[in-house]
Specification:
ATP-binding cassette domain-containing protein; transport; 2 domains; binds adenosine-5'-triphosphate; globular; P-loop_NTPase; Rossmann fold; ATP hydrolysis activity; single chain; 26% strand
Length: 241
């Protein structure tokens, strides 16, 4: 197995230019975060605090900040990013969307088809995304992120606007896929139950500029995470902290 990737994030300053005469908004200032190789970290925090901004900086989509983001283990890690909305290309079929970041080889095609089978949506391979439900589109987006074999997986509220049973299914799929192909995960959510069910570590961001107000180790095994009572008990303690 390839070396797992850890992250060292040191944002000296990230700000956005003013909109309509408002003052410059500093989103992060002196923000430091280290993530262990192979860790599953959930980021919680109120809307607008800067969670997506942080993922965009880690992914390299946003380079307009001062500071450093270093990766350990893999100097050029493969990065999977599941955006808040599935962002599938409407003029490409499901299979073509998944193949997009891959080389045009037979083995890449097999990987994509295996992922679709693993997601339980093999029958959608030749379908265009607009014909799919949101839950199916989210599965395709997850398959696309996994197709590259990511060392680092960034996930921005990937289960939002899904009914509870679809979200539960996708959560189980994610955990099963990570068991097969481990990655370092940063997962943004508003849902503390989601965080407790999946993460080893939960970081709560607050304030402006944003900083971590809680950094909690979950330390539950898989059986405990599947036990609703155990999750609620942990959540009670977590919220009271
Ligand atoms: N390109 C941009 N230009 C100007 N301001 C921006 C830009 N992108 C984000 N912002 C502002 O930066 C702040 C942080 O946005 P961000 O999307 O990172 O928050 P978030 O915590 O992910 O929110 P949510 O949970 O609602 O997705 C918000 O106030 C937002 O309006």
């Amino acid at each position: 197995m390839a070396a797992m990737t850890g992250l060292k994030i040191e944002i000296d300053c990230k700000s956005y230019p003013p909109l309509g005469g408002a003052p410059m908004r500093r989103i992060f200032e002196g923000f430091h975060l280290s993530v262990d190789p192979g860790a599953f970290v959930c980021l919680l925090g109120q809307s607008g605090i800067g969670k997506t901004t942080l993922l965009n900086m880690i992914s390299g989509l946003d380079t307009d900040y001062s500071g450093r983001i270093e990766f350990h283990g893999e100097p050029k890690p493969r990065m999977g990013y599941v955006f808040q909305t599935p962002r599938l290309l409407p003029w490409r079929t499901v299979l073509e969307n998944i193949l997009l970041p891959l080389p045009s080889t037979e083995s890449a095609r097999e990987t994509a088809l295996d992922l679709l089978a693993g997601m339980g949506i093999s029958d959608t391979q030749d379908v265009y995304p607009e014909r799919l439900s949101l839950g199916m589109q989210r599965r395709v987006a997850l398959a696309r992120a996994f197709a590259i074999g990511p060392d680092v997986l960034l996930m921005d509220e990937p289960f939002t606007s899904l009914d509870e049973s679809t979200a539960d299914r996708l959560r189980d799929l994610l955990i099963a896929m990570l068991a097969q192909r481990p990655a370092t995960v940063l997962f943004v959510t508003h849902d503390s139950r989601d965080a407790i069910r999946m993460a080893e570590r939960i970081l709560v961001l607050s304030g402006s500029p944003a900083h971590a107000v809680k950094d909690v180790s979950v330390g539950m095994n898989l059986d405990e995470r599947l036990d609703k009572g155990a999750v609620e008990a942990f959540r009670g303690r977590f919220l009271a902290q």
